[in-house]
Amino acid sequence: xxxxxxxxxxxxxxxxxxxxxxxxxxxxxxxxxxxxxxxxxxxxxxxxxxxxxxxxxxxxxxxxxxxxxxxxxxxxxxxxxxxxxxxxxxxxxxxxxxxxxxxxxxxxxxxxxxxxxxxxxxxxxxxxxxxxxxxxxxxxxxxxxxxxxxxxxxxxxxxxxxxxxxxxxxxxxxxxxxxxxxxxxxxxxxxxxxxxxxxxxxxxxxxxxxxxxxxxxxxxxxxxxxxxxxxxxxxxxxxxxxxxxxxxxxxxxxxxxxxxxxxxxxxxxxxxxxxxxxxxxxxxxxxxxxxxxxxxxxxxxxxxxxxxxxxxxxxxxxxxxxxxxxxxxxxxxxxxxxxxxxxxxxxxxxxxxxxxxxxxxxxxxxxxxxxxxxxxxxxxxxxxxxxxxxxxxxxxxxxxxxxxxxxxxxxxxxxxxxxxxxxxxxxxxxxxxxxxxxxxxxxxxxxxxxxxxx
Length: 454
Known about the structure:
Elements: H1 4-16, H2 30-43, E1 49-51, E2 54-56, H3 61-73, H4 78-104, H5 111-120, H6 123-129, H7 136-156, H8 159-175, H9 179-194, H10 204-213, H11 216-225, H12 229-240, H13 247-263, H14 268-278, H15 287-304, H16 318-329, H17 334-365, H18 371-382, E3 387-390, H19 394-404, E4 414-415, E5 423-427, E6 436-443, E7 446-453
Parallel strand pairs: 3-4, 3-5
Antiparallel strand pairs: 1-2, 5-7, 6-7
Helix pairs in contact: 1-5, 1-17, 2-3, 2-4, 2-19, 3-4, 4-5, 4-7, 4-16, 5-16, 7-8, 7-9, 8-10, 9-15, 15-16, 18-19
């Protein structure tokens, strides 16, 4: 088969990735990132994120990117801006897959396009985190690109690629948290071992840039935030997934997590498993494929050994998995390859009704799920009077986002300090101390109460 169909399908897979962007209201924690970006822009505290005016020790790069897009398309489209950043990062990861596939499989002209196509049609990427306005797609892109650059640096012994990889992993840290360094170092150790390049650890031109680059978390946490708050949050979040669970919870997670990883990378993973079981298709793994598997294993291990590691933590590894799957698909015969391509086409096509009907029905159209209807109600009741909040669940954050972009910058919703009077107060819990209850709503499984504090 010529390269042209793979180019066309890759282009279509990228286009359908955009479909949910203007349709969906805020989903889950999207409003957390959007609200943080809005407050950084309004208050001008570019290194310090806040939520409803309260300091929140998170790195700000993802928020900066949201701000850049919102400035172009307008703040009234803030939820779309958060998703554009994620889609751009996803396309960046696809480009890295393309580049690495061309390097690992140089004998096949269509292979880079096949690799990018496999990545863009992975279920987790195409249907969820690849477009969703969370930091994970951007975080994953920087980690995957950093590991890929490090691979070239170690294999070719080029300082240039090492510097590129260090820049990328630094951007990963500034996007989310310090856990990116664990993945980066783990991948680096595997690559040093696989290429027998331990001698690089004795070369100053390789070691010194690494040591200098790795001071960034300390600089950010101690000189910018003060006191290492970001590290504390990251460590606390990590320990939360390990401590206080029964043995059954650990065993259940150990069994289900690799299945979750492979299952959410459908359809190609499931096709290859089916061919292996039903048609006795056997696969071979060359040196590079084995190296990829080792990197995947050691990077996944901390999340796998936990009791409750979620699917979000798997995002940085789908690019690596796409390269493994590309090598396996190349081993299929013509009939099996045609079947794989047909299923990929089906996944691209099903994304259309999924984006325009299925997902909106699940998230927005069912009763008590319309966030914007509640926002309209609140704004009509408050009639431009001061609004404060004590609601920091996802729906409360979403309400705040929608109201903020429709009010003057200096009047955005802030956290209620318990002292202000003549203000409206939003709460997720019923609390007579907040004043007179004006109205209540049930929204996406949560309650929202509006009080008037006389």
